[in-house]
Design a protein that fits this description.
Elements (H helix, E strand, L loop, with lengths): L7 E2 L2 H7 L10 E4 L4 E6 L8 E7 L10 E7 L8 E7 L3 E7 L7 E9 L5 E9 L14 H9 L2 E8 L2 E8 L7 H9 L3 H5 L1 H6 L4 H11 L9 E3 L17 H10 L5 E4 L1 H15 L3 E11 L6 E6 L5 E2 L5 E13 L10 E5 L16 E2 H5 L9 H9 L1 E8 L4 E8 L5 E6 L6 E3 L1 H4 L6 H13 L22 E7 L9 E9 L5 E12 L5 E14 L4 E8 L1 H5 L7 E10 L5 E8 L6 E5 L8 E8 L9 E6 L8 E5 L7 E8 L5 E10 L6 E9 L2
Parallel strand pairs: 2-9, 5-6, 12-13, 15-20
Antiparallel strand pairs: 1-3, 3-7, 4-5, 4-8, 6-7, 8-9, 10-11, 14-17, 14-22, 15-16, 17-18, 18-19, 20-21, 22-23, 24-25, 25-28, 26-27, 26-29, 29-30, 31-32, 32-35, 33-34, 33-36, 36-37
Length: 687
């Protein structure tokens, strides 16, 4: 006899409160593994007798792959598998507490109940997630404040700019909004691993190490039609400029709406932010990390080569590069494959830079392994080690003869001010010392040598016995660029070139200077300025040479990354060349947000955004973009009339907050002269 369909009460509110899933806005039960949840259902008489529950997930559930569990009512919670404990029963309904194991496969489950020999009756579906609050889980995070930040916080801060001048902007991760959870589940079902072997893929979904690696591949579009298509060309036709996004929600929604076509376009922080959203949504503690002067060592020799011509122009030669900054992720979980000292924060990187195992994926690389130079451990520790530790070699290259001369090398250039957002505060925390020992210390050099040895590199380039062209001679002069005045888009750029004669006799120096607009990857886009001077320096003399690059000179050439590379190649008569360089990132003008009145749940509140045009020409095509989890649905886009010189625009709009607490409103303002001026404001919403 077929059983009648029982009706199920999932106790959504109570279960969500117990399982830290209240922020999801779902009609479906969402719970965390290794922890009990309660359901009540009717349609069974004398329920405590011979009831069997069936929980199953994936396309072909089986006990062997741990994607199918059958369990009956017992008096205690099982240590190993699934279990059901009777809470209460009446003549026609029964309340059951169901527990899953700490290492259960995560995802959407179908739950049914079978009485005696009748066929099973469906109770419905629920979603099972990782549980950082539970000590048996691989993602267990003992510090509750860190769980709040790295799993439940929907707002983040991403650090950018360069190591001399760190800037930051807000990001709306939005992992609990709308159907983001469903989109995250469908990302897993579209991976190459799932397509090749769905049964095995689903059976591995208990392991954060496996999922982290798979999702690092799926967030970029390479190989698998993943979520975001990268573009580092400086031209973004047919899509959105990577610097214009303010949150992950719009990106993930677009991917789903387009029938899972990659979203155009992303750069490193976009990949990292989307991966943060996906992993936090699934319950893996995750944060975004920015590494300044980040090496991309394409040939795996822990060395980055940069080439310059006689004019001081940075040449696009070789596949190594150094980026002003690079953003990746850290996720928190145990490394049972490596041992306890390698557990904790693991580096994952969804930006498609180099292939790993034939696919654009990176990690998880244990942060501890990176610090200790254990480059032979899984996964991709060599690549991450180079990002924070590679040595820099600067060459003068003559394209006519193909000859190269080493100008100088530097072992302290790469991997500076490694940054992430603080727990519970909107400020920066420096985590450089978690990635490497202090620059210049004996320990740091020892680790570098250890890594080279493990990679079998000690013969190829030994700093103590260099080949002829790699002998570094002592320069006669030293130089640096100093910034004089503010670094702001719309203002003239004032620099000083400071040259010092290190020798006891006079030196004549011919200096070729250039300034180029670049992307944050230091890829040159447009030449802005060039000049050459000839100077004589008296013995031990220091001289300063002012450089002014006017706003109209650079305005047309500037990229939306607002970065400029200035170089001076100094040819010392009868001496060796000296390269002086500086990467400069300009700040956008400010934008101001005011909340007019008190913000209350489900009540309208007016917000005013003001922008003053700081330049002496009209700005047009002005657009204001606003978003914020629990403050408004989706994204609000407002067009603003043109602004004359020094004119201020004031734009008002209404919000209806849906939840109490501190909420972040993100604003992005663009016009024809200024791209993506970003700011955020904390709004304290009361009930």
């Amino acid at each position: 006899v077929a059983a009648t369909q029982p009706s199920t009460n999932w106790h959504l509110k109570e279960n969500a409160r117990e399982h830290h899933t209240s922020k999801f806005s779902s009609e479906e039960l969402i719970v965390r593994r290794g922890q009990a949840f309660t359901i009540t259902f009717n349609g069974t008489e004398r329920p405590e007798q011979n009831l069997i529950f069936i929980a199953e997930t994936g396309p072909k559930p089986s006990k062997a792959t741990k994607t199918l569990a059958t369990f009956d009512i017992s008096s205690t919670v099982s240590k190993e598998g699934w279990s059901a404990v009777l809470q209460s029963s009446s003549s026609n309904s029964v309340s059951i507490s169901i527990s899953s194991p700490h290492n259960a496969v995560i995802g959407r489950y179908r739950l049914s109940v079978q009485k005696g020999s009748s066929s099973p009756a469906s109770l419905g579906t629920f979603v099972l997630l990782f549980n950082p609050w539970s000590s048996g889980d691989d993602v267990f995070m003992p510090n509750k404040a860190e769980c709040e930040e790295y799993v439940l916080e929907e707002f983040g801060i991403i650090f950018a700019g360069n190591k001399n001048h760190i800037s930051s902007f807000g990001w709306n991760f939005g992992q609990f909004q709308g159907d983001i959870l469903d989109i995250c589940l469908s990302i897993m079902d579209r991976s190459l691993y799932y397509r090749q072997d769905p049964v095995t893929d689903v059976s591995h979904r208990h392991d954060p190490r496996y999922l982290g690696r798979v999702l690092s591949a799926m967030v970029n579009a390479n190989d698998d039609q993943g979520v975001v298509l990268g573009n580092w060309s400086g031209k973004y036709e047919g899509g959105k400029n990577p610097s214009s996004w303010t949150g992950s929600g719009e990106i993930l929604q677009s991917w789903k709406k387009s029938g899972f076509k990659p979203v155009k376009y992303g750069q490193c922080w976009v990949f990292a932010a989307v991966l943060t959203t996906v992993l936090r949504c699934l319950g893996i503690p995750t944060r975004a990390i920015t590494n300044f002067s980040s090496a991309h060592d394409a040939d795996g020799n822990l060395r980055v080569d940069e080439f310059y011509d006689a004019e001081g122009n940075h040449l696009e030669r070789g596949s190594d590069s150094v980026w002003n900054f690079h953003v990746w992720n850290e996720s928190w979980f145990t490394r049972n494959d490596l041992g306890p000292s390698y557990s904790g924060w693991q580096v994952l990187d969804a930006t498609p830079q180099e292939q790993s195992g034939g696919i654009y994926q990176c990690g998880p690389a244990s942060r501890h392994a990176v610090k200790e130079g254990e480059v032979d451990l899984d996964y991709d520790v060599t690549f991450v080690f180079a990002e924070v530790n590679a040595d820099c070699m600067y060459w003068n290259y003559d394209s006519a003869t193909g000859k190269k001369n080493l100008i100088f090398s530097k072992s302290t250039e790469i991997g500076a001010s490694i940054s992430t957002k603080a727990v519970g505060r909107d400020s920066r925390v420096d985590v450089t010392s978690d990635y490497k020992y202090e620059e210049g210390s004996a320990k740091e050099r020892d680790i570098f040598k250890k890594a080279r040895k493990k990679l079998g590199l000690e013969d190829k380039f030994d700093p103590t016995a260099p080949k002829l062209e790699e002998i570094e001679q002592k320069p006669d002069i030293s130089g640096k660029f100093k910034v004089a005045g503010s670094l702001e888009v719309g203002k003239d750029l004032n620099l000083l070139l400071v040259l010092e004669n290190l020798q006891p006799d006079a030196k004549t120096v011919n200096v070729n200077m250039t300034a180029w607009s670049t992307l944050y990857t230091r890829r040159r886009i447009n030449q802005i300025w060039k000049d050459s001077i000839s100077v004589t320096l008296a013995p031990k003399e220091e001289k300063q040479f002012p450089i002014k690059i006017k706003y109209p000179e650079y305005q047309q050439q500037l990229t939306t990354d607002k970065s400029i590379q200035v170089t001076a190649l100094c040819h010392v008569e009868d001496g060796i060349q000296v390269l002086v360089k500086r990467n400069i990132t300009l700040d956008n003008p400010a934008i101001d947000i005011q909340v007019l009145g008190e913000a209350k749940v489900d009540k309208e509140v007016v917000v005013e955004v003001a922008f003053t045009n700081p330049i002496d020409v009209e700005v047009k095509d002005c657009v204001l973009q606003v978003e914020g989890s629990d403050l408004l649905q989706g994204i609000l886009e407002l067009r603003i009339p043109p602004l004359k010189a020094s004119e201020t625009s004031s734009t008002k709009f209404k919000l209806i907050p849906s939840e109490a607490g501190p909420k972040h409103l993100l604003v992005n303002f663009s016009c024809d002269k200024f791209a993506d001026i970003k700011t955020f404001k904390v709004i304290n919403v009361i009930n």
